[in-house]
Amino acid sequence: MTLPTDQPIHRVAMLSVHGCPLMMPGVRSAGGMNVYLRKISQLLAERGVCVDVFTRNHHAGGPELLELGPNARVVHLSAGEPELSKEEVVPYLADYTDHLRRFVAEEGTAYDLVHSHYWLSGDVGAGIAKEWGVPHLVSYHTIAAQKQRAGGEPESPVRLEAEARMAAAADRVFASTVGEAEDIGALFGLPPERLHVVHGGVDTELFRPRDRAEARRATGIAEHERVVLFVGRLEPFKGPDILVRALAEMRDASDVRLVLVGGSEEERSAGWLEDIAADLGVGSRVRWQPAIPQADLPDFYASADVCAVPSFHESFGLAALEAMACGTPVVAADVGALPSLVRDGETGRLVPSHDPRAFAAALEELLDDPEHASRMGAAARAWASGFTWDRSVDETLDGYRSVLSAGSERPLVAPCV
Questions:
Q1: What does the radius of gyration of the chain's CA atoms come to, in whole angstroms?
Q2: Which helix (H) or strand (E) is 69 found in, with range?
Q3: How far is CA 402 from the centre of its chain?
Q4: Where are the beta strands (DSSP E) in 121-239?
Q5: Which one of 3.40.50.2000, 3.40.50.880, 3.40.50.12710, 3.40.50.1820 gives the CATH number of domain 2-201+388-411?
Q6: CB neighbour list of residue 113: distance below 8 Å, 6 or more residues apart
């Protein structure tokens, strides 16, 4: 039995092979996509749409099924050893698909659509959506061609080809900014009607201005220090080494502290940065804090005089938005989506190159003038307040409805209970 397309959306299958919404951002390959999946799934469920996020099991012997909240679940599927890298997962995608089919068949569940996230999920999602007779939507989150163009390491032909297939097979491609949508259209030859923008969001209740003295007591940062904060994965493409080198370029940085939040002790994520800092003679002024839960991040943002985002490309830039929501100005590279978040001269500074000296100058502008930085922080909070997760889920539902309305019929899907 099928229903006309004007029926409500009841159930969505989200496929995210490598990105579990329960993983802590900043560890291994987890980042903004994981936060996005968790928030969007929870909010869709609050709107009456049941969501199942199918991801690869990343803990040996871990539970298969976990709740994100009422009517939102994470389903862990076996597909190779938990510690595999992204490329190493490819041979196990058939196992992931088989376990997905089996889980859905045993539950007897039907879905209105399939939404695949990141390139590893694209082929699986296209095949499953075709089997189920439902639309297939994709979100890239990052695109290999964009990363390579921005100076990243060469990506494998496997990924490049998979991303091209995603575009060709998808009923709709989601992008996080208008600029990214235009870029995707140009890269893959897609017309505007097959693209849809869903802006990222920030939890403005969690990420909000708070007393700096209290925040510094909580984070162990000295009151007299001027603090530059970096939050994210400690990998070269994110540019944390640029900030270490910028610290060494500053005219008077004796009281400047660079705080790096991300990575893990197990992987010794900051070792390469500590080596650079030692060689440049600034090791005593660099502090590494391994990745922490999102609930603990606001104290670090509030402790900082400025948050720096020196990435070579950002599809969205969640750390920049979180800092702004906390009233902390941002100095960011003028790349990707960051210009849509950071208003140069108003909420922070955009740096047109990745030269450490250019970053040093931009950071010094804010560090040397606290009143100027405070005005920018207030403007940053006001601007960030428009990037709500409610808007993100509204735009997500608009994209879903536009695809479903273009079809003739769809399967009978039971509503959430």
A1: 22
A2: strand 65-69
A3: 24
A4: 136-139, 172-175, 195-197, 226-231
A5: 3.40.50.2000
A6: 9, 12, 13, 129, 134, 135, 136, 137, 400, 403, 404
What's the rounded Cα separation, in Å, for the pair 269 and 271? 6
Among the listed residues 140, 324, 150, the one whose alpha carbon sits nearest the alpha carbon of residue 231: 324
How open is the CA angle 302-306-308, to the nearest 5 degrees? 115
Give the span between the Cα atoms of 386 and 381, in whole angstroms.
9
* pTM of the model as a whole: 0.89
Instruction: List C-alpha distances in Å: 63 to 7, 66, 73, 93.
Output: 34, 7, 12, 20
What is the crossing angle of helices 318-325 and 32-46, to 10°? 70
What span, in angstroms and rounded, lies between the C-alpha atoms of 329 and 362?
Answer: 11
Measure the CA–CA gap between 13 and 171, rounded to whole angstroms: 15
Closest CA to 299 of 289, 308, 309: 289
Beta strand 2-4 pairing with 409-411: antiparallel
pLDDT at residue 87, rounded to an integer: 80
Query: pLDDT by residue (tens digit) across 206-239?
Result: 999 999 999 999 999 999 999 999 999 899 999 9
Q: How far is it, in rounded angstroms, from Cα 406 to Cα 417?
A: 27
Mapping DSSP to helix (H, G, I), strand (E, B) and coil, where does residue 359 land?
A: helix
Does 46 or 315 have the greater pLDDT score?
A: 46
Residue spans of the domains in the chain: they are 2-201+388-411, 212-384
pLDDT category, 264, cuts 50, 70, 90? confident
Alpha-helical regions (H) of 5-92: 32-46, 86-89
Predicted local confidence at residue 341, as pLDDT: 93
Measured CA to CA, the distance from residue 113 to residue 402 in angstroms comes to: 12
Q: Is the pLDDT of residue 240 over 50?
A: yes
The CATH topology of domain 212-384 is Rossmann fold (3.40.50)
The alpha helices in 208-329, defined as continuous H runs, are 212-219, 240-249, 271-280, 297-303, 318-325
pLDDT exceeds 70 at position 25: no
- The partner residues of 175 in beta bridges, in order of sequence, read 197
Alpha helices by DSSP H, 220-268: 240-249
Q: Which two tokens stand for residue 204?
A: 């403005």
Q: Which amino acid is at 343?
A: R
Record the tokens describing residue 334, joined without a space: 């003028």
